[in-house]
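Submission sheet (multi-component)
Chains listed below:
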Amino acid sequence: MDHGHTRRFPDQAGGPPCSAFTGRVAGPRSSSLLACWLTELSLLLLLMFGASPLLRAADSLVRYEASHRAMGTTFTLVVYGQKRAYLQEVTAQVFQEIDDLDDQMSNYKPESELSSINREAARHAVMVEPKLFRLIQESLEYSRASDGAFDITVGPLMKAWGFFRGQGRLPSKSELANVLKRIGYQHVKLDTSAHTIRFDTPGIEIDLGAIAKGYAVDRAVKILRDNGIRRALISGGTSSLYALGSPPGERGWKISVRNPLDTSKAACVLRLQNFSLAVSGDYEKFFKLGGKVYAHIMDPHTGMPVENMLSTSVVSPSATDSDALSTSFYVEGPGAVRHYLAHYPNLTAVLFLPEASAHAFKRVVLKSSVTRLPAGSFVSIDCH
Amino acid sequence: MAELASHQVDVANWAFESEPISVVGTGGIDYWKDGREVCDNVEVIFRYPGGRKMLYSSILYNAHFGFNEQIMGDHGTLIITIGKGMYYREAAAKVSNGKAKENWWAGATVTEQAVQKGIPLFPEEAQRQQGFLDREMLYAKRWLASMGIYEYEEPHDPKWSELSNFMASIRDGKPIACPLDVGMADARAVIYGNRAVDTGTTVDWPQKEA
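Outcome: structure written.
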């Protein structure tokens, strides 16, 4: 069939036009027409199967995935790039950074800088490494903003409830009352000019468990960006994630948030690009006693595990922020979260609240009053 | 197979809510050359619907692991033995059957403790046994029992439970906890398992009539 149309291509401007798709050319013009036909066919094939330079680049990308144990959990990183050896090298650099942070901020390691602060800051001011100082400063800002719902001094409470190196235990009322005297972010005094920290009450201990993983994820993302990585996902224990760019051929990284009552199912499905997600929940670290469940997320005001929340998810441009806020929102509940989101931009929170039936929960999706997504970011949340 | 494997087959049939569909196996009288006619070791693999499998191993010249059942799935591993159970979480970060090229899970932090060291299935029991007062109470009871002052009450064992259920079913017509079809399914698995070991072939379960 002769379609009867012709096309000119820039490099053939002076030559005869290609009679496309005829298949009926003959005689002296046949060789040049055949060349034309082949050229057009190859261009068509290129258009169909990968003429786009972007698609070609995506096809040639190598995927590299690795996991690493740190901070009492497993960090998983997947990166896309041109050369596997390079991706391996960058991944090693990321995991080294996380190990360094763990060595510095762990309250499980007696030799860490944080353990040293906890031992000495009640006796004298302790000079703190600038980045750790800044993180403690940020943590205290979260404590003030949440009126103490987020509190990095809950360490003694975690010990009293047996969640430090243990499976949990029920403390006595008198034990709790004594421990509560040693809880309170107000007891942590920072000197911003001298970069020192001091506790005004003996027995205060800092525990960065509710923010350190998010911070480590942000530091990892910085290393990835600095090394030219544009497509990666890092997950700290599945609870702190950052989606850098998107996987090849997709818009955003697909992330399923576990249903808190049936963790094999997804309660929400997100697609994120250049955004972080943090999840807090009562279903991984808890103990049962006398038919009652005691989870590891504490209300620093009462000294008791939070009972009126099953899980919280927070989406934010910064993994440090989302990590801290997922804990803070878990303790505070919907009213305070709404108030917070009215004042802070670019946040989405999904709260999973218990219902009267033990097999049901209510999802509440709340967004910041002001949302101005940073350039290159993409967020889609589907809570079916 | 009959004396030992039948218990684990029973657990597998219960956990998978199905009988096996085929079995392969090997074994032999390789250590106890004392004239016995029953294998002193068997290794049997039962295949269940949906690609699930039960591996049974029994070795009569090594007691290191004793009796236990290990139930392994994509969420974790349960290790159950008499009076004790542990659960080891899988640190799964990715959704297995997602159509997207990248499909990740997010959830509460999966701790290394849960993955590596395990979580006791009966934390109340574990905690009670660890408590100072409970330990002291136990010693006191033992001492009083040795003096004949206190009658030590042993917890009921599974035989007691089964027999009392059997009696209750005769006396009161209550449904029996271990009905005939469960026993039959177990017996079939034993017979086919033995056949697989003896012949070295795959033994299939007969197709059920529609």
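Remark: Residues 1-47 of chain A have pLDDT under 50 and may be disordered.
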